[in-house]
Amino acid sequence: MKTVISGLENIVFGHRRLFIAIFLILTIFMGWSATRLRIDAGFGKLLPLHHEYMKTFVEHGKEFGGANQILIALKAKDGDIFTPEFFATLKAATDEVFFIPGVDRSKVRSLFTPNVRFTEVTEEGFAGGNVVPADFQNTPEGLQQVRKNILKSSVMGQLVAMDFSAAIISAQLLDIHPETGERLDYLDVANRLEKDVRSKFETDNISVHIIGFAKFIGDMTDGARRVVLFFGIAFLVTALLVYWYSQSLVLTAISLTCSLIAVIWQLGLLPLLGYGMDPMSILVPFLVFAIGVSHGVQMLGATRSEVFGGADNMSAARGSFRRLLVPGCIALASDTLGFLTILLIDIKMIQEMAITASIGVAMIILTNLLLLPLLLSWVSYSEAYKQKTRKRARNMEGVWRFLAKIAEPKPAALVLLVSIGLIVFGAWKGGDIKIGDLERGIPELRADSRYNRDSDLITSHFYIGVDILSVIAESVPEACIDYDLMTEIDRFAWHMNNVPGVLTVVSLPRVAKAVNAGWNEGYPKFQVLPRNQLLLVQSVKGLKTSSGLFNPDCSVMPVQIYTTDHKAETIARIVSEVKNYSNLHPMENLKFRLATGNVGVMAATNEEVSAAQFPILMYVFAAIILLCYATFRSVKALICILVPLGMVSLLGYALMTMLNIGLKVSTLPVVALGVGVGVDYGIYIYSRFKSLLDEGLPLQEAYLRTLEITGNGVIFTGITLAMGVATWIFSPLKFQADMGILLTFMLLVNMIGAILLLPALATWLMPSKRTANK
Known about the structure:
Layout: H1 2-14, H2 16-34, H3 52-64, E1 69-76, H4 84-98, E2 103-109, E3 117-122, E4 125-130, H5 140-152, E5 166-173, H6 186-201, E6 206-212, H7 213-246, H8 249-272, H9 284-308, H10 313-340, H11 348-376, H12 383-395, H13 397-404, H14 409-430, H15 450-461, E7 467-474, H16 483-497, E8 502-506, H17 508-518, H18 533-540, E9 556-563, H19 568-584, E10 591-596, H20 598-632, H21 635-658, H22 668-694, H23 699-726, H24 734-765
Antiparallel strand pairs: 1-5, 1-6, 2-5, 3-4, 7-9, 7-10, 8-9
Helix pairs in contact: 1-10, 2-8, 3-20, 4-6, 6-7, 7-8, 7-9, 7-23, 8-9, 8-11, 9-10, 9-11, 9-23, 10-11, 10-20, 10-22, 13-23, 14-21, 14-24, 17-18, 19-20, 20-21, 20-22, 21-22, 21-24, 22-23, 22-24, 23-24
């Protein structure tokens, strides 16, 4: 290994100008390529497509509507909807939505669409028509007739608020733009909803409220763009900290430049590889920058240590390159593997995040372990600078001597006891962590965001709510006129309607029973499924497939379960009841399959996250074990490095439980990232510690020297990384704030673990090293 490193060192430093020129040319090219990077959001990217629920979703979503829906509620600020102004606005808004590119026009529903009808029982039998008739006149008489038609229909609570204060326009989105044939641009749809609907139709008397995936992506992207401000703040804070550490504008500029180059290369490679930037991944470049700065600080510290030891510029740069190449590569490889393990989550958006982050960390290997020492080889250090930094180092001697006492048996035992207590607490409290969302509304956005306020208004005014889980009842053709099959579906619907968390259930048998009662003068006694097949045919023949209650041959009938919310426990309870009922009531020619609807997507995602959480951690730790053992060839080294990581992982779960943060798509990666990035501290500390022990120094003295050389950089790195991601806490996006809280905690506590717990473990694992070798 030393021969390989020596050969690489000679090649790199023997051709400094050539390598600098290559870096410059590649940076210019990557910068140009980065200008072609686009925001890339897609509904399908959020779906775990190989999950069994999503197979049902894909198979039946197009026919019965999936979860890619938009709801636009127009609300009268005073009074009700039955005014000429409101109906004129509702009609115009319906027409506007109808012609938005990407809207499935056959599935647009509002009071003004022909697929919204009413049915009534008359002396001659059934009669019906459009809720808003074709010859509708926007007059008091016409509005009164529409009111009567609404009361005869099933749109109350669905398209019309229960108090008549609002009306909804519902639409499904296609995945492909119908004119261009390309994937639908959700940002364009979101912009059109704001510009052509909300801004156009919101007045002093009417408010407009919009929810749905496209609008969510639009709000996410708007919030993500504002994160650039936080990057600016983080950059400024980081620059000040690096300057405080290095006491040199030149060293500060070099360190920040190398980290920025890593980010430029990362962003430039994405379009070359066919990737865009998902709004959920917008923070990854900022994290890469912070990681780059942290490794740059280690290189600065090592180079200065060589200079203060009497080396010249070139020798110092070569010495730091030689000393940090292996531990730096191991640390960054651990970071990369931490990101790559997220690929285990079978959700395209998360996998793209993993690839994006891995590319960025790989670039740091080139910029901070290769380019940075090359640039440092040209930096000269004045005698005044050396005196100033030596003086500050002397001021820190008391701190290092105090911390070095950890390497004595009694203080080490105390640290181990406290750590055991923290591990027990973390395992106890972390065991209560929930999978999925723990709050109402969209948890990625803050509770007071426009989207969540719109969602709350729609939920409070419309009976069906905005969360739906559709269970697909699959049977034989013409099952809707088979009494036994229809009865079983009805029993299932009744059972689910009584499950806590279910708002209401809509199914074909339920509608058929209402129709049968209608054929019998509305008498409640006849609100049943007729056993006579001819009467059953009579009950369903007037219904259309556009109702979404059955397919053309009546072999598939969705049971639409509207839920009170999409909290983790609500989804888990309802899904469990569906499975239990299906297992306890098997029936030939009838199968209940989960699931379509937005809650179906969430259920699949939660199960995917639950299945992936432990394999991800296992693979991260396995990768770290292999890398560390290959480097240090010692089981004791593994214990010293891994135990602090394991403790912090458990405490991270405990913190999520205490802060009511669920384990979900946006937070699961943080667990892997915290471990992958946190191991850097342990690797740098142990690498220097072991080299000094191998030189024959006693354990406590070796750790004191380690702190003097590396400790300053490790502590500074932990603070720099933590302060960089702590700015995310103030993000307008809730999921970014959650990531900021968790990463700040894990990075700081990992740093503390490496400084305190690692030497405490070494003290008791390596007692022969407590005194100098004879």
